[in-house]
Amino acid sequence: MPAQQILQEAKKLHRVSESLDSLAAQHAPISEALSVLSASVRKSATLLEVLVAMRLGPEPGLGPAN
């Protein structure tokens, strides 16, 4: 299903964002740039998740949160 594939890509982007955050903590000279890039990647991942939710609907079998 396309939604699952897109959500998998969003997960990958979240992992890349976490990795960039980790690198930012380790490399002070470029910390700010890495943090900015990390935030941009994280926002892209979130936008993919929103796109799936709005355009492709919820996954079958998932109900509202209790």
Describe the structure.
The chain is built from two helices and no strands. It has helices spanning 2-26, 31-56. Helix 1 (2-26) runs antiparallel to helix 2. The protein is elongated and about 45 Å long. The protein starts with a helix and ends in a 10-residue tail after the last helix. The model has no long low-confidence stretch (mean pLDDT 89).
Features:
single chain, 66 residues, mainly alpha, 77% helix, elongated
- The proportion of residues in beta strands is under 5%
Distance between the termini: 26 Å
Rg estimate, integer Å: 15 Å
Give me the number of helical elements. Answer: 2
Structural class: mainly alpha
Relative helix content: over 70%
Kindly summarize this structure in a few lines.
The chain has 2 helices and no strands.
Topology of this protein?
Blueprint: H1 2-26, H2 31-56
